[in-house]
Design brief:
There is one protein chain. The protein is α+β, with helices and mostly antiparallel strands. Helices cover 34% and strands 25% of the residues. Strands 2, 3, 5, 6, 9 and 10 form a six-stranded mixed beta sheet that branches.
Length: 233
């Protein structure tokens, strides 16, 4: 049994471990002669915990180091002490991880809450009703009522003008009615609702500056787009 509490390393540590194991085998095999009576259980527990209250010159230490019965009990107490320490270390590690995770989550939520324009990330629902609205096709001038959309991530439902054909449509936001300067684009298939054809799509206008634009709508079988004045606010 290793009775010295000093720390060693390398070859010396391995050598001491070998001596300890060899001595324990001899004691447990009854090859040693115990000195004095067996100490009580409280003493063996303190010895297993390496209590500083116990002096190595105490005769009970010599007895425990040479008695098969005391050695067996001492080793069992040592295993329990080691197991308890491992459980406490494991619990402490889990608690530390939970504290760190909670701190990261709290900081993350705080930072997200401080982001400007966060409401735009959720998507703003808008309906653009073009059922009774005239159009500008190509460069043909016309007086139209301006469509208005916010500068954000917009979920748009577009009610197409009368007599619009079903099928795939491409929708763009452009700087002029010639299709130049596309700042946002999406596509969708028109869904028939009664006599109306409706497009449902998302337009990302978060980086678009407020001002005057055009909403360009093009059918998959049509080469020319229909333009509607658009106000980004």
């Amino acid at each position: 049994m290793r009775l010295s509490w000093r720390r060693s390393s390398g070859t010396e540590d391995r050598f001491e471990a070998w001596i300890t194991q060899s001595h324990q085998r001899r004691v447990l095999a009854g090859e040693t002669t115990p000195v004095g009576p067996c100490p009580d259980e409280a003493f063996l527990r303190d010895l297993a915990r390496r209590s500083k209250r116990i002096s190595l010159s105490d005769s009970r230490v010599d007895h425990a180091a040479t008695c098969p019965e005391c050695m067996g009990r001492l080793l069992e107490f040592r295993r329990k002490v080691y197991s308890r320490r491992r459980k406490l270390e494991f619990a402490a590690a889990i608690a530390s991880c939970l504290v760190v995770a909670l701190a990261v989550l709290t900081i993350g939520r705080y930072r997200v809450s401080q982001l400007p324009g966060l409401e735009n990330l959720a998507g703003i629902s808008k309906i653009v009703n073009l059922w009774d609205v005239g159009t500008i096709r190509g460069e043909q001038p016309s007086q139209l009522q301006s469509v208005s959309l916010p500068a954000g991530l917009v979920s748009v439902k577009i009610i197409l003008p009368r007599f619009s054909a079903p099928g795939q449509y491409e929708v763009s936001v452009t700087r002029d009615q010639n299709g130049n300067g596309v700042v946002a684009q999406s596509s969708a298939v028109a869904v028939s609702t009664g006599a109306k054809e409706i497009l449902s799509l998302d337009l990302d206008l978060r980086k678009v500056k407020a001002g005057q634009y055009f909403l360009a709508i093009t059918h998959e079988l049509d080469q020319a787009a229909y333009y509607y004045p658009l106000q980004i606010r």
